[in-house]
Amino acid sequence: NVFMETGTDMGESVASVSCWFAEFDPDFGEISELTVTGARSYSPWSKAIQYPIFKNARESRYKVHSVDVMKECYENANKLFESNPNVCLYRASSDQFIRDWVEKVNSSDELRKNKYFFYLDAHWYKYWPLRDEIKEILKLDQFIIGIDDTMVPGKSDPRFPHGDFGYELNKGTP
Fold first, then answer.
1. What pTM was computed for the model?
2. Which residues fall within 8 angstroms of residue 50, CB to CB, at 6 or more apart?
């Protein structure tokens, strides 16, 4: 019931999951319209991203949390999702954010009851915090981890692996 994402970027994942949660729980909010900004995902076959605009959003047991270190990504997403208090956006380093989040969850009986899906971005630049993020998440009792971009089509090259993750993880080698 809690979606945790690292790497908000253009907010495509937040938009999709928010629409799903709105179908599960009327308290999450009713989608009054979908807006298009012209933003597109990175795949060549993608359509413009549709962002939900909510009305009647109340406190829901379903929550979307997304963190990005980039100021522009955080600010743009904050504007796009301001109509829903169940969508929480943060500007921080993802590894520190997850460390703090896990500590908060483990110190709260109420938060420990949630089921967490962590959607981790494999990242594109020099800093790859996946190991630190996963190390922290493993301290929780119940969770699922999905990793985005472990092999980036058109970007990953088996001759030049992207650090300790990326192509090598996709091939199943440590």
1. 0.83
2. 15, 34, 35, 36
Q: Are 13 and 5 in contact (CB under 8 A)?
A: yes
Report yes or no: 166 and 151 within 8 Å, Cβ to Cβ.
yes
130-to-22, 99, 145, 170 alpha-carbon distances in Å: 29, 12, 11, 14
Comparing 77-81, 112-116, 119-123, 166-170, the range with the smallest average pLDDT is 166-170
Pairing, β 30-40 against β 48-55 = antiparallel
Residues in contact with 122: Cβ distance below 8 Å, sequence separation at least 6, in sequence order: 128, 130, 147, 148, 149, 150, 152, 162, 165, 166
Residue owning tokens 């790497």: 7
Q: Which two tokens stand for residue 79?
A: 């504007």
| pLDDT (tens digit per residue) in 10-65 | 899 999 999 999 999 999 999 999 999 878 776 666 788 899 999 999 999 999 99
Position 44 scores a pLDDT of: 63
Look-up: residue for tokens 């796009």?
A: 80
Phi, psi of 51 (to 5 degrees): -105, 130
